Structure formats: structure tokens, C-alpha cells
Amino acid sequence: MKQAPSTARAVATPDESSAPESDVHLGLLDDLIPFHLRQAQNASFRAFARRVGRSDLQPGRYATMMLIHLNPGITQKTLSQATGRDTSSLTPVLRDLALRGLIERRQMPSDRRSFALSLTPEGERALEEMARHAQAHDRQVDAIVGDMKQELLALLRRITAELS
Amino acid sequence: MKQAPSTARAVATPDESSAPESDVHLGLLDDLIPFHLRQAQNASFRAFARRVGRSDLQPGRYATMMLIHLNPGITQKTLSQATGRDTSSLTPVLRDLALRGLIERRQMPSDRRSFALSLTPEGERALEEMARHAQAHDRQVDAIVGDMKQELLALLRRITAELS
DNA sequence: TATTGTTATACTCTATAACTATA
DNA sequence: TATAGTTATAGAGTATAACAATA
Questions:
Q1: Cα(A122)–Cα(A87) distance, integer angstroms
Q2: Angle A152-A158-A163 (CA atoms, 0-180°, nearest 5)?
């Protein structure tokens, strides 16, 4: 992910606009959606990680567990599609979660190649603890966005859908 | 980074809303800004990477080079602040770019602890080639967002600023 | 003492290719 | 033949801690 600028500018002389971090010139970057999408996502992730701190469950595992919680019996294939990852990326994550007793994998009788995923009671507890941090984070971002939330969500969903 | 949901839902029975990837239930996730921020950023990055293909310059290097281009003489410290990374994360990236002849590092006479970064002519050429891909990507995202672009940029900038 | 940057090290996330087992 | 998932392997990106050079 990253940004996407445009024509390169000759040398210095950039015009600043908003100065997100320091007084670094962003030039044309400042008008590009992919750039700011990344900056915002990055800031949001770090803020969330800061909240979670040295918790047992790391931020990266949260979406995975939440999706399993919301879709008990989901297979790895479906889960990988939902998050846009290859199934091989999911294997070590799920193995780790299973080893720690947070998820359960049951071979499906109908198709023994597949495994139905679900959270264990301990997994549900871990998820709820993480959810407390997440809720605080969500509320903070909601407050920043204010009454534009629905419009923002609509735009983000559209970007995701059309670029997938 | 990830998303942040909230209260866990008991078992199945999730209400879907928008079905971004497959027909996976998103439940409360679907109403959370951090979640969709990540999904959109992820989709945007992948779309950009797809465009660039097996190019010499990878997407991850693009923002770094663009910022050096826009701010010739910038130091590693300032650059790391602008992108929210630790200086130690930047070291290998800059070393690689320097080895490939794309950037130049001049020790500053005023403070010999610092190095002034700039693109070489070859670096400028590489950046311009990458910028062509980026422009096409930018235009695609612009088209998706339509006339809401300025509002979206304003929201993303605000999220970045307030969570930093 | 404080700051810029590097080194050593480690961890997370991700992918590709080859593979197993099922279908 | 095609699909679900694993293994082996690799690469990108990031961080912390200890350090060197300089301020």
C-alpha cells in the first residue's frame, strides 16, 4: 500500500498545505486519496496498538477472531477471501490461535478437506477483552469524524469494493 | 492494525449489510471506521501493486522517494517523523536505495550527525516511471469517490492528525 | 547529557511453489 | 482434474536496545 502521487516536481519549492507530521512538504501528495488513506490507516493502527499495549492478544489477530466469532463454522478459504489474504497466510495465524486454545477447528464431514472454525469459550473471553480496547478506539475515531461518519463509511466501502 | 469492533455477538445470526468480499457476516464490524479504513487501504495498495507489477521500484519505496523528491536535503529523522516510522526502520530502506543509485546522502557540515537526502538523476527517472502507474491509480480512486473527494481528504487528514 | 543515525536482532504479515488429502 | 489446506521458504516492513559519533 502506499501512496500514489503523480508528476514529479523538479526540485524544491513545494507548496505545503496541511502539515500532518512535521513541516515536511507534501506537494502533490497532499491531494491524493491513496496517500492519506495510508496515513490515516497507519495512525489508526498505531493508536489502537498503543491502547492494547502488551496485551495477550495482538491487534493483528483481532479482525480474524472477530470474523470467526461473527461467522462460526467459517472455513479458512472463506476467511481468507473476506480479508483478501492467501490461505497460506492464514495457516500460521490459525495454528497459533489454536495452540493457545482460542479457536477450534473441526473437520467438516460433508467435505473433509475443509475445517469449520469457531472460537472456544476462552477465545470468546479474549475477544471481549480486546473488544473493550477496540470500543474505546472506535469511539475516539467516531468523535474525530463527527456527523460525517456514514458518508465516510460509504466512501470507504465503495473504494474497497471497486478495487477488489 | 486492525479493526476494532465492539461487543461480541453471541453466536451466529449476524446481520449482514454490505458484503465486501464474499457473503461473510460483518456484524458490528460493518459500522466501524477503523475496519473499513483498513479494508480500503488494503484494497488500494493491492490495486496499486497490481499496476506496478514486477517493476524495479516497489510500491513501498514510492512514498519515501516522493518525500525526498519533494523535500531535497531532508534528514532521516524528519523523514521518519513524516511517515511515522522509527529511524531504524528507515536505515535499511535508505541503504538499499543508495546502493541502487537512486538516492544520495551528503553529510551536513552544520551538524555532522545528520545526512541530507536527495534523489539522484536516476532516482528522479525511477520516480517518474513509478508516478505514471500512481497517476493512473489516483485517477481510478478519484473516479470512485467522485465529488466527495475534498470531504474525504479532510476527514482522513483529521484522523491522521488527531491520532498521531 | 542529548541527539542522529547504525547495528543486531526479532517479530509480524504476506506471498509463491510444491505438496497432501480429499473431491 | 480441481479444491482446501499445509509446508517450506522468502521478503518486506517494523520495532527495541545497545552503540558510535557528534553536539
A1: 25
A2: 130
C-beta pairs of B115-119 under 8 Å, 24+ apart in sequence = B115/B75, B115/B76, B116/B72, B116/B73, B116/B74, B116/B75, B117/B68, B117/B72, B117/B73, B117/B74, B117/B75, B117/B76, B117/B79, B118/B68, B118/B72, B118/B73, B119/B65, B119/B68, B119/B69, B119/B72
pTM: 0.81
Query: A149–B35: do the CB atoms touch at under 8 Å?
Result: no
Q: Looking at chain A from residue 61 to 100, which residues have their Cβ under 8 Å from any Cβ of chain B?
A: 62-63, 66-67, 69-74, 78-79, 81-84
Question: Over the Cα atoms of chain A, what is R_g?
Answer: 20
Q: What is the dihedral of CA B58, A22, B39, B34, to 10 degrees?
A: 160
Helix (H), strand (E) at residue A104: strand A103-107
CB contact under 8 A, A38 and B39: no
User: Is residue B16 over pLDDT 90?
Assistant: no
A2's CB contacts (< 8 A; 6+ apart) are A34, A35, A38, B45, B48, B59, B60, B62, B63
A115-119 vs A103-107, strand pairing mode: antiparallel
Cite the DSSP H helix spans in B1-148.
33-52, 59-70, 76-83, 87-99, 121-145
Res A4: pLDDT: 32
In the complex, which nucleotide's C1' lies nearest to the CA atom of residue B86? D15
Q: What's phi and psi for A135, nearest 5 deg?
A: -60, -45
**A45 in contact with chain B, both atoms CB, cutoff 8 A:** yes
The single-letter DSSP state of residue B147 is: G
Q: Which of A116-120, B48-52, B104-108 has the lowest mean pLDDT?
A: B48-52
**Measured between alpha carbons, how far apart are the two ends of chain B, in Å?**
14
